[in-house]
Design brief:
Length: 84
């Protein structure tokens, strides 16, 4: 029975590592979504912002581009001091 508990704990730990910690670490190291080839339209930028809701603008080039497209279209107002 103790052996089974160890296996369960090991499996839970590995799942946590694979699905929670690893993506966060990789996202910080290399970014997550690449810059688009062509500038987003306002509608595309809105969809990208919704799709990438969990991404951080500091590491996600696609979300960063979408955000500033919406700023240029006067759909979003950035906080004071926001850096392009």
């Amino acid at each position: 029975m103790p052996g089974m508990l160890i296996v369960v704990v090991a499996v839970v730990f590995m799942l946590e590592l694979i699905f929670a910690w690893l993506p966060a670490i990789l996202g910080r190291l290399g970014g997550c979504h690449a810059l688009p080839d062509m500038p987003y339209s306002t509608e595309e930028a809105h969809s990208v912002m919704q799709w990438l809701i969990d991404c951080d603008m500091a590491t996600c080039a696609a979300k960063h581009a979408a955000f500033w497209t919406l700023v240029d279209a006067k759909r979003v107002t950035p906080v004071a001091g926001a850096v392009r």
